[in-house]
Write a structure and sequence with these properties.
CATH architecture: 3-Layer(aba) Sandwich
Helix content: 40-55%
CATH topology: Carbamate kinase
Largest sheet: 2 strands, parallel
Strand order of the largest sheet: 1-2
CATH superfamily: Acetylglutamate kinase-like
Number of domains: 1
CATH class: Alpha Beta
Strand content: 5-15%
Oligomer: single chain
Number of helices: 3
Length: 113
């Protein structure tokens, strides 16, 4: 059977924070992280390079926090930290599958990312 040519060499995958939480809930579902990591592995095994952007809305939403009285800048910073938390958990899930991954963040979190 002839080998199919890939349409794309590189892709950018955006995963909403809601993709990491239990159904109809918030928080973190390790089984969802593991399942997403397996899907990423399947794509990677085709030779496609993948960059991933994750969200943090399953943990915290800055806009909602600011409505509850927290300073908007601080609320948004907490949302960015939630995003980093998801990125680190996904990184761990990928590494368990022997897939190299690194977390890059615009906010400094020394000794963690």
């Amino acid at each position: 059977m002839p080998k199919r040519k890939r349409k794309y060499k590189r892709v950018l995958l955006k995963i909403s924070g809601e993709g990491f939480c239990p159904e109809n809930s918030s928080g973190i579902d390790n089984a969802k992280f593991a399942s997403i990591a397996r899907e990423i592995r399947n794509v990677k095994n085709t030779g496609v390079e993948i960059a991933i952007v994750v969200g943090g809305g399953n943990i915290i939403r800055g806009a909602i926090l600011s409505k509850s009285g927290i300073d908007r800048t601080r609320a948004d910073q907490l949302g960015m930290i939630a995003t980093v938390i998801n990125a680190i958990i996904l990184q761990d899930s990928l590494k368990k599958l022997k897939i190299p991954a690194c977390v890059l963040s615009a906010i400094q979190i020394q000794n963690i990312v």
